[in-house]
Write a structure and sequence with these properties.
Layout lengths: L26 H5 L11 E6 L5 E7 L7 H17 L27 H54 L1
Antiparallel strand pairs: 1-2
C-alpha cells in the first residue's frame, strides 16, 4: 500500500483520519465478488457509512487507477447530504472538481450492451452483499445461541449442585 504513505500531490491518499481496510486473506474481496481467478482483485472502492449501509461501490479493471480525490469528493457529498437531510443535493454544474474532469465524447461509454452488463454486475454484487450481511447476521445469531446454550449448561450444573446439597 505504497499510496498510503504518499501525499495527495504525489497521487497518494495523504494523511487519513478514517479507517482503511486491508484484505490480506481475500475474504472481503470474495464476499463482494471482486476476486479474480488468479487471486488478485479488481480495483474496487466501497463507501460504507457508520450505519453499515453501502453508499457507493466502484469496480474497475486492474488497469484503471482509483482517483483518491474523487473518493474524497464522494465521501464529502454523502456527509453533506446526511447533514442536510438531502436538502441540497449537488448538481453537476456546481461540482467543485469539475475543472479537473476530462470529456471524451468520441467514446460511447453508455451503449446498451455496457448498460446491461453494468446492471447485471451491480445486481449480482448487491445480491452478494446482502448475502454477506445475512451471513454476518446469522453468525452473530449463532454466537448468541451458543452463549445462551453455554449459560444454560452453567445454570443446569449450578442447579444440580444445589440439588445434590439438599
Amino acid at each position: 500500500m505504497n499510496y498510503c504513505q504518499k501525499s495527495i500531490d504525489d497521487n497518494g491518499l495523504g494523511e487519513l483520519n478514517f479507517p482503511l481496510l486491508s484484505d490480506f486473506d481475500k475474504y472481503i474481496s470474495t464476499c463482494y465478488g471482486v476476486i479474480i481467478e488468479d487471486g488478485s482483485s479488481f480495483r474496487s472502492t466501497f463507501i460504507i457509512d457508520q450505519n453499515l449501509i453501502l453508499r457507493h461501490m466502484s469496480i474497475n479493471d486492474i488497469s484503471i487507477c482509483v482517483n483518491p480525490i474523487e473518493i474524497c469528493r464522494l465521501v464529502e457529498i454523502f456527509q453533506q447530504n446526511d447533514n442536510d437531510n438531502y436538502a441540497n443535493l449537488p448538481i453537476i454544474s456546481g461540482c467543485p472538481y469539475q475543472n479537473n474532469a476530462k470529456s471524451y465524447p468520441e467514446i460511447d461509454t453508455f451503449s446498451k450492451y455496457q448498460k446491461n452488463q453494468k446492471c447485471s454486475k451491480k445486481k449480482l454484487l448487491i445480491k452478494k452483499i446482502k448475502n454477506f450481511q445475512i451471513t454476518k447476521q446469522s453468525r452473530h445469531q449463532q454466537q448468541q445461541q451458543q452463549q445462551l446454550k453455554h449459560q444454560e449448561k452453567i445454570n443446569k450444573k449450578f442447579l444440580i449442585k444445589q440439588l445434590n446439597t439438599i
